[in-house]
Protein: DNA glycosylase/AP lyase, H2TH DNA-binding
Amino acid sequence: MPEGPSIVILRELIEELDLEGQEVIALSGNTKIEKDRMLHHKVKAFKSWGKHFLICFENFSLRIHFMMFGTYRINERKQTPARLSLSFENAELNFYTCSLKYVEGDVNVNYDWSSDIMAEQWDPKKALKKMKTKSQALICDLLLDQEIFSGLGNIIKNEVLYRVGIHPSSVIDSIPVAKLKLLITEARQYSFDFLNWKKAHVLKKHWLVNTRQFCPLKHPLIKSYLGKTKRRTFFCPVCQILYH
Structure:
């Protein structure tokens, strides 16, 4: 599943095409949504919110979620059928194996940008406040809560928890506030590091625990499926403190 930084990369690639203000001149794809609704409408903006990519028109937007296996192509096509293809005068956008949905009205009313871990409007104080309202939750679940950390995915979860020394099964109410603040700071910083490493095609080289067998201090790592989300988790039982 693409995490927030990957969606930012997609948005930046499309922004380079200078398609804002251009009209959709043709549509195709096997999507079941009413795709012709976008035909001959001009794009107002391309936005990203967490794991959502948004194509904004007047009074409505198309939300694209890539789920686990979604992909895209710009000015080229895969051999497999596209879920949706949008054609402009000088460009074509193709989306595959993704979820499509219309969002009605002003996109800024529908989305809380302060919860997007990579947005300029990101509000760490609001994130901390939201975390405290779920005091009995496990930190491995809460980091994947898109209403608190929009765009943060499983890789970032694993890496950030190791970097701040928190065991993934720690209960929120038991983690010191100073540690939670450090976690929030590191989550945002790592998201931008993720973005830069992915652009440079060196992301995996920087993983400390994700998919590894040993942590940087040579302790054996544990691989488990923890919390309500049951997402794959790599952690070090020596370096990461269990707060409970």
User: Anything to note?
Assistant: Strands lie at 26-28, 45-49, 52-57, 60-65, 71-74, 84-87, 92-96, 99-104, 222-226, 231-235. The mean pLDDT is 96. The domain at 4-111 is CATH 3.20.190.10 (N-terminal domain of MutM-like DNA repair proteins). The chain has six helices and ten strands.
